[in-house]
Amino acid sequence: MSPTPPRSPASRTPRRAPRRPVRPAPRKRPRWAMRATVTLSVVVLASAGIGHTLLSSLDSGIARVDPFKDMKNRPRAGHGMNLLMVGTDGRDRITEAERQQYRLGGAPCHCTDTLMIVHISEDRDRASVVSLPRDSYAETPPHTDRTTGEKHHGHPIKINAAYAEGGPQLTVRTVEHMTRVKIDHYLEVDFTSFMKTVDVLGGVKICTDRRLQDSYTGLDLAPGNHTLRGGEALQYVRSRHADASSDLGRMQRQQRFLAGLVDRATSSGILLNPLKFRDVTRAVLGSVRADRGFGTDELLDLGRAMRTFSPSSSEFTTVPIGQMGYAVKGIGSTVKWDPVRSERLFEALRDDKPLATTPRARGRAVRVEVAPQQIRVQVENGTRTPGLAKQVDAALRATGFRTTGQPATARDASVRRTVVSHDPRWDRSARSLAAALPGSELRAVPGLGPTLKVTAGAEAHQVRKVRADDPQRGEAEVVRGDEVGCS
């Protein structure tokens, strides 16, 4: 047997993992255990007839596209695997009942509703997902419009329009032109395939700390934990009007959903259960389009990688934004990337490195909806402890909150639990402030106005760091799957 493992893991015979000293590391299996698990999994799949043979038969049923045809002057190949995953608004196989229930009756734009670069590290220990806003300002390479036949030498567009002008090929070429990341594989998912995949997994768990409503998609989720089936999941990832953050908020929800999907697939035994593995694979492959090179070997590679994944193995981010509402004649309002920060992000993908900006590097600040720089706060002392209000005011200001700098004394000097008083209209700001004051109590006071009031109590005065993504300043944050999933 060659010392280099063959491409197909199903053709390997089990061999005893070499003995190596294992350093104790919390929540991480030693590498020999990973190898043993992978080998055992492949043996189980092979013994059940669900290995190369079954996947080869399923492989033949995948609808194929050729997004790499005649492509020249492509970026250099990096390490690991880069998959461009696009979600289209195709709804040809949606039933009339589903159209009505999930608000899918509009005419499709034949464009990409979602674009993500999914990078699987060379050692198969990490997945990095980068969302590309669909309204991103982009410049196409030379091409021929597939609808009009008109030849273009390259022109500005919104990135999601590349699919309408030149299909998967122009989409890949435009993404490579903008990012200089070489795309190895292409996977296209429409509404039907998305719903089927979620249903065969038994649903995906998501959580929200506030009510999410969108009259356009019909989404209506109360605060708390939810297990979403196919149609509801589609409403969740499509909603752009659930809050004021529009498409940027929608991408964050998509990332949370993907984290839940990874958690569901890796924690429920699906990838180690031959029959479940077969059913999931059938659901996915039966209703997607992929490039000709995305076949049995790649599927087994991904399956093997997923078995060592956990939510903490995945990381998510959005391309840093330099300017929102960038107006382009003939196109309208676009989103322009921050050139310096986005290049740093794509360089990490090309070099197969973890994405640079992580919560750990920032001291694991708690993510909140509203940035502390946008929240004005008045601090009062609700105890008889001298200087307490001044102490809390200074700590909040150091964390970024806009305090008045003039702490006062409350009428009640017997407050035990710190209180965050707020006008109901500023409830999102209040939740962000309360996150910085662990153990505090939220109290709605109609008519209080935009300045929030903190009445410091006797129990605890810890102030912790909080931060919100601010894509308009190019500060989109990288988060791990276990930080955006449900606890």
Automatic annotation (TrEMBL):
Q: Give the highest taxon in the source lineage.
A: Bacteria
Tell me which residues make up the LytR/CpsA/Psr regulator C-terminal domain: 374-458
UniProt-annotated stretches for the region Disordered: 1-31, 133-156, 465-487
Spell out the Basic residues composition-biased ranges: 13-31
Which intervals carry biased composition (Basic and acidic residues)?
142-151, 466-487
Q: Which residues form the Cell envelope-related transcriptional attenuator domain?
A: 112-265
What InterPro entries does its record include? LytR/CpsA/Psr_C, LytR/CpsA/Psr_CW_biosynth, LytR_CpsA_psr
In which family does this protein belong, per the annotation?
Answer: Belongs to the LytR/CpsA/Psr (LCP) family.
Give the protein's recorded name: LCP family protein
Per the UniProt entry, what species is this protein from, by scientific name?
Streptomyces phaeoluteigriseus
